[in-house]
């Protein structure tokens, strides 16, 4: 059997959607499936046209899996599956501009209409997809992501692999993920500035990740923050792993998450986590310490409370690896195969 996935996701790293697509593709190949990329372009509009034209081709013993919300604009002649990761705009207004949101919703609605199966990545996302796009709950298949077993507590042999020498101190707070409004980094920066104003010995804040969209104001705020904040940009897998293993506290004050890879990855590495409970994080973040809200006051209070409670930090770090191990790619890929076989039959 053959599966085609969007090349715009599979062959470029655009965050969690790429992590998902590449892990799924690797697992399917290991099980004997052939996985190939659909054509794409550097232009979003041209990519949309190319994917739609690709859907017009008839392919035996194959299916198309659009792994990142949007799909073809025309009826496919090959069985089609779409994964919709979540709908932040059901709860918040900062994820996209009104024009971006209108275009996105029309594209997702079209993809759902033209697909033979709809997958999402958490129960909260399934509720959102069903509510916004008028589906019955049983029409949305919930398949959790897995966590790569690479994310684990460091041994002596790999303790220094990927070390970000000279760029971060021994004691640091970490945010890792895309730079975009939904991640609530402006509020995090303000809360951290207040923390440092209270105590100039408080840990610095390290940010790692690439600009995704609508990031201009956040980047200006990062640049103006001074030496207490260090932005590393996009980091290598080895550097990412080192940062997750060595941070004093992993921070994720997101306004909405469809799944929340970085939180589980940090927990798997044995690091304490302080995060919001929005979207899927209520069900995925397990033993993580929780913010009471996502405003500047809430994040500041959460930081003061967490950093002042070494017992809670230790308990979170100890419970995290076992919780994260419950999310495996083997389970996820088996569930995807079941959907594929049902569609192909």
Per-chain topology:
Layout: E1 2-6, H1 7-10, H2 16-30, E2 34-38, H3 44-55, E3 62-66, E4 80-83, H4 98-114, E5 117-120, H5 123-133, E6 140-142, E7 172-176, H6 185-198, E8 204-208, H7 216-224, E9 229-233, H8 237-246, E10 249-252, H9 261-268, E11 273-275, H10 281-284, E12 289-290, H11 296-307, H12 310-325, H13 329-344
Helix pairs in contact: 2-13, 6-11, 9-12
What does this structure look like?
By secondary structure, the chain is of the alpha/beta class. The protein has two domains: 2-146 and 328-344, Rossmann fold, CATH 3.40.50; 172-325, Glycogen Phosphorylase B (Rossmann fold, 3-Layer(aba) Sandwich), CATH 3.40.50. Helices cover 43% and strands 14% of the residues. Helix 2 crosses helix 13, helix 6 (185-198) packs across helix 11 and helix 9 crosses helix 12 (310-325). The mean pLDDT is 92.
Defining traits:
single chain; about 350 residues; alpha/beta; Rossmann fold; 2 domains; six-stranded parallel sheet
How would you concisely characterize the structure shown here?
The chain contains 13 helices and 12 strands. It is α/β, with parallel strands linked by helices. It has helices at residues 7-10, 16-30, 44-55, 98-114, 123-133, 185-198, 216-224, 237-246, 261-268, 281-284, 296-307, 310-325, 329-344, and strands spanning 2-6, 34-38, 62-66, 80-83, 117-120, 140-142, 172-176, 204-208, 229-233, 249-252, 273-275, 289-290.
